[in-house]
Design brief:
With about 425 residues, the protein is α/β, with parallel strands linked by helices. It is about 50% helix and about 15% strand. The strands form two sheets. A seven-stranded parallel beta sheet has the order 3-2-1-4-5-6-7, sandwiched between helices. Strands 10-11-9-8-12-13-14 form a seven-stranded parallel beta sheet. The mean pLDDT is about 90.
């Protein structure tokens, strides 16, 4: 089957599935406390026309991690192409909230269409991009084929393949290789990522090793967020008590964190826990776990509004976009999505603040971050509540050891700086 017939078959299947899945998609969004993305992503509510300027650059990241990694990249692109009109799209409502906070005004923020023929054509006709930039692993065959046919120049930045994705691409790669060839530019964080993409048959001339964009994004955000630390400490009523940030937790992990935390309260009765579920809409569920264990808690959303002072030993972080700054007031960090089999969350966020993170074994989406930290003896693997409690107790009892590990964690990031500038120069090269 030639590429054109594959494309037609894909368009037919996605169109039919889109119509069939319409009710499910609406229920799914509503059940997660959202729904505003329903009409935009289906192409039934198009974004405004792009802002004036040339070239028109459309940058897409699926969710919060990709959007935050774009902070440094957008800054560098603006420096090199001050007349450019920038549009930033996201695939999730949490990503949209973060994008609006960091990029609007000055950059149009919108949703990314589902890979349905009418939605894709509607967005491309409205935004009329000269360059489309996808971040990480956003490969949508229908969209990329339609953009290529319209003459849009395509780039894929910070491309990386997890173990699972690589196996899937090796199995079905013959159907996707021609899609990769639509890109004029593909940047990868490391030589290992380059070898993985080469194994799929991607031409070497397309691939550029630039370092990891997420490191630049983290360090840039950390510098910006430092000014907020006194206010965060005031809101939390912090003096000298230690603070544990249990971040981006998934179902099943909060129980582990709370069991370990309660074991620590006898030797460290003033230990404050910042408990941040990965999906804030799970806050009521997590609150019930806290109540069942007899742990007093308060909502970060309420505290941050100044509606009450902090009195409880646990703060439930029930907002989007505040976790990164809260790492700045923490002394200890556990990063979730790693004890439950979700592939991990970004281990380098606490490292940017000089915290050596603890995490579980399920890190297939963040092996690169694990390697950076563990090669510097600045990341620590735990298996269960007992292991988490032991590791936390050691850091609490040995603050000099904790501080040294934190310094190693931050210093491990520094050699990976510069990716944003290198990638922006390659993008500018597509224009000049």
């Amino acid at each position: 089957m030639n590429n054109y017939l594959i494309y037609l078959a894909y368009q037919l299947v996605t169109g039919l599935l889109g119509l069939a899945a319409w009710p499910w998609f609406r229920r799914h969004l509503t059940s997660r406390g959202g729904g505003e993305s329903f009409f935009p992503r289906l192409g039934l509510q198009l974004p405004p026309a792009p802002p004036p300027g040339r070239p028109r650059i459309w940058l897409h990241g699926v969710s919060v991690g990709e959007i935050l990694s774009a902070v440094a990249l957008v800054r560098e692109v603006r420096a090199l192409l001050p007349g450019a009109a920038l549009t930033l799209s996201t695939g999730t409502e949490t990503g949209q909230a973060v994008a609006r906070r960091h990029f609007a005004p000055g950059c149009q923020v919108c949703y990314f269409p589902l890979d349905l023929p009418w939605a894709v054509q509607g967005y491309l006709g409205r935004l009329r991009p000269d360059i489309f930039i996808a971040l990480e692993s956003e490969i949508w065959p229908g969209f990329l084929t339609a953009a290529h046919r319209r003459g849009v120049r395509l780039a894929l930045l910070n491309a990386r393949l997890s173990d699972r994705t690589l196996r899937r691409y090796l199995k079905y790669g013959r159907y996707l290789l021609h899609i990769f060839k639509y890109f004029e530019l593909i940047t990868v964080p490391s030589a290992t990522d380059r070898e993985r993409l080469l194994s799929l048959g991607i031409p070497p001339a397309l691939l550029h090793v630039t370092g990891n964009l997420k490191v630049d994004g983290l360090l840039a955000r950390q510098e910006q967020a430092r000014a907020d630390l006194p206010e965060l400490r005031r809101v939390l009523g912090l003096n000298s008590q230690p603070v544990l940030a249990a971040a981006s937790t998934h179902a099943g992990e909060e129980e582990v964190v709370l069991e370990a935390y309660q074991k620590l309260l006898t030797p460290s009765p003033t230990l404050l826990l910042l408990l941040a579920p990965r999906h804030p809409e799970r806050a009521p569920e997590v609150a019930r776990l806290l109540d069942a264990r007899g742990l007093a808690w308060q909502s970060w959303q309420i505290l941050n509004k100044g509606e009450e002072p902090r009195r409880a030993p646990v703060v439930l972080v029930d907002t989007v976009g505040d976790l990164f700054g809260l790492y700045g007031v923490a002394d200890l960090a556990f990063v979730g999505g790693s004890l439950a089999p979700h592939g991990g969350q970004n281990l380098l966020e606490p490292a940017a603040w000089g915290l050596a993170p603890l995490y579980g074994p399920h890190l297939h989406n963040f092996r690169w971050a694990q390697n950076i930290l563990e090669s510097a003896r600045a990341g620590f693997l735990i298996d269960d509540a007992a292991g988490l409690a032991r590791a936390l107790r050691r850091f609490l009892d040995h603050p000099d050891e904790r501080a040294a590990a934190g310094r190693r964690a931050r210093e491990a990031l520094l050699p990976h700086q510069g990716a944003a500038r290198r990638q922006a120069e390659l993008i500018a090269g597509m224009v000049w």
